[in-house]
Write a structure and sequence with these properties.
The chain crosses the membrane at residues 51-72, 84-104, 124-147, 225-247, 275-298, 328-353, 359-383, 428-446, 467-489, 522-543. The protein is mainly α and 569 residues long. It is 77% helix and 0% strand. The protein has helices spanning 2-30, 39-74, 79-91, 94-108, 128-151, 156-166, 168-197, 200-205, 210-220, 224-253, 271-300, 311-354, 358-373, 376-400, 409-416, 421-444, 448-456, 460-489, 506-513, 519-544, 557-568.
Length: 569
């Protein structure tokens, strides 16, 4: 196993860590003096980034925790549609949220008038608070997903004792809320990471964060790579330290409970409680999902034009988008699924290697923290540097052979020919930690005795995977694939910097169109993206046979007995 782990360490360093560390090394070499005048700008970026994170967490975490408690344990009517809506929310990219809420904030909310004869203005259309609102609403499905996973790991024995002593309210107060609070910390960490490292919403709302500053400086070429990266480096280092500490504390606190974990204890509340909870959760769903969707339909149908909204214009815009960008959308979906499969497979193997090795587990933990908090544009810059070095190595190799081929495989795949590989690689680097977060706990939950028995019976590595790991963690692998695929559909911050000429993902076209005046076309692009992702989410649910909505399997007695019987035979 030592050779397996050493090889895995090298692969992860080359494939994932190197693209992130290369721009840091180049920036350190390119900056030879301290720039005192930059202190004020860095302080402003830090204040904006921190304020955006705090505000987004205050919006997403409380709402997500309450929604998870209501949907998971109060069992309100319409739980199936609510869960389907939440699953769709995971797939909707951030640029779509930005466009939809811009319509609501700029077109539907009334302006403020400063005085007679003065120009009306909308302070809620751009700025820190609108950006935090959009980020918070976009993160609610993720918070619900994370907290639901935590609630499904609650101790059944404690629930039964609390129910017998004081009723369902005691179960909520003494068992579920403490468990949800731990999950809320993990969810808040994810909201902070997504808010601080993405640029689509801050770019649309004109908020300067560290990630936005890196992207802006690189695009404007005002200070080069060194200036672009060095601005974000102090905040990145602090984020790694703080994020690592929080992740470690969350892992310790969020471990499996000492008692039995199984189907949750049925809780029966008064009809008034159920109906109030039902009204609140459905009202929130209509506000968070229905209102922006309606805004996109209104905008795509010409609601902002003088002639007003018409069905004819809506259908015409949708037809135009499907004709011009339908193939691109399907290609982007396929690439996103491929990235999800690649990230989940790599995380599956890495988590398996980490289960029996403390040093590899620490290495994987540090790698995931560094990748998770890295700003998206920094990853994109690192990918450009790595691709440039690979192209140079390939040219040197052929020169040493005395050959001058007309086709260079690496150069054509990663640099000067239409190819989705550079963007897919950057997306893999960014969202590999998400797959690890989903798969590592599932691998750790496998009893050590079962793995030891596999080694004793001599079934080998392939037998261990076939008889133990795949049956017990296959659903977690599917969840990891879907989570990364959902994120890959909306990745802009890194892939925009490395996409090859002649190839552009659908979300990059949408991001570019956001900065032009074709409002109805932009809305139609968003609606087509939502329709395609809804179909993909429905197909994933159908293919999994509802396993995505069921609690994770934590009992391993039956699979263990099946494995032992098979091994003995």
């Amino acid at each position: 196993m030592l050779w397996f782990r050493a090889t895995g360490c090298v692969v992860l360093m080359v494939l994932l860590a190197a693209p992130v560390m290369l721009p840091v090394v180049e920036a350190a070499q390119g900056v030879s003096r301290a720039e005192g005048e930059e202190v004020g700008r860095v302080a402003g970026l830090a204040a904006n980034t921190l304020g955006l994170i705090v505000a987004a967490c205050l919006i997403a975490v409380p709402v997500g925790v309450l929604a998870a408690l209501v949907i998971e344990r109060i069992r309100v009517p319409g739980r199936g549609p609510l869960r389907a809506l939440l699953l769709l929310g995971l797939f909707v990219p951030l640029p779509v949220y930005a466009v939809a809420w811009q319509v609501v904030l700029e077109k539907w909310l009334p302006p403020m008038t400063l005085g007679p004869g003065q120009v009306a203005w909308r302070p809620w259309a751009q700025g820190l608070l609108p950006a935090a609102w959009v980020h918070g609403v976009a993160a609610i499905p993720w918070v619900v997903w994370i907290v639901t996973a935590g609630l499904r790991g609650a101790d059944r024995g404690l629930e039964e004792d609390a129910l017998m002593i004081a009723g369902p309210r005691a179960v909520v107060r003494r068992v579920l809320i403490p468990r949800a609070a731990i999950a809320a910390v993990a969810a808040g960490g994810w909201v902070a990471v997504q808010t601080a490292t993405e640029i689509p919403i801050t770019d649309a709302m004109m908020v300067r964060t560290f990630a936005e500053e890196v992207y802006t400086q690189f695009v404007s070429a005002s200070e080069g790579l060194a200036g672009a990266v060095i601005v974000a480096l102090p905040a990145w280092v602090i984020a790694v330290v703080v994020g690592g500490w929080l992740a470690r504390r969350t892992v310790i606190s969020f471990g499996p409970p000492p008692g039995e974990v199984g189907q949750p204890v049925p809780l029966r509340f008064a009809p008034a409680v159920r109906w109030v909870a039902t009204g609140a959760v459905w009202l929130g769903a209509l506000l968070a999902a229905g209102l922006p969707l309606l805004a996109l339909v209104w905008k795509a149908g010409g609601g902002t034009t003088r002639t007003g909204w018409t069905v004819t214009m809506l259908l015409g815009e949708m037809r135009k988008v499907l004709v011009t960008d339908g193939i691109v959308l399907m290609e982007s979906l396929a690439v996103a699924v491929a990235v999800g499969l690649a990230a989940a497979s790599l995380a599956w193997i890495a988590s398996w290697l980490a289960t029996g090795s403390r040093w590899f587990a620490r290495f994987l933990f540090v790698l995931c923290v560094v990748l998770a908090v890295a700003p998206g544009p920094v990853v994109g810059l690192g990918m450009k540097t790595a691709i440039g070095q690979l192209v140079d190595v390939e040219a040197w190799f052929f020169a040493q052979l005395g050959s001058a081929p007309t086709f260079f495989p690496i150069r054509s795949t990663l640099y000067d020919q239409p190819s989705p590989v550079p963007g897919a690689w950057a997306t893999l680097v960014r969202y590999f930690p998400v797959a690890v977060v989903v798969l590592w706990p599932a691998l750790r939950a496998i009893p050590r005795d079962l793995l030891d028995q596999a080694k004793i019976d001599g079934v080998g590595v392939t037998g261990e995977w076939r008889l133990v790991i795949v049956p017990l963690t296959g659903v977690a692998f599917a969840r990891a694939t879907i989570a990364v695929s959902a994120l890959a559909l909306g990745e802009v911050s890194a892939s925009k910097l490395v996409h090859t000429p002649g190839w552009s993902a659908y979300i990059l076209r949408l991001f570019d169109q956001m900065h032009y005046g074709a409002e109805s076309t932009v809305a139609a692009l968003c609606l087509a993206q939502i329709a395609a992702t809804a179909a993909a989410a429905g197909l994933a649910m159908w293919a999994m046979g509802g396993a995505l909505m069921r609690p994770p399997t934590t009992h391993v007695a039956e699979p263990a007995e099946e494995f032992l019987d098979t091994a003995r035979r």
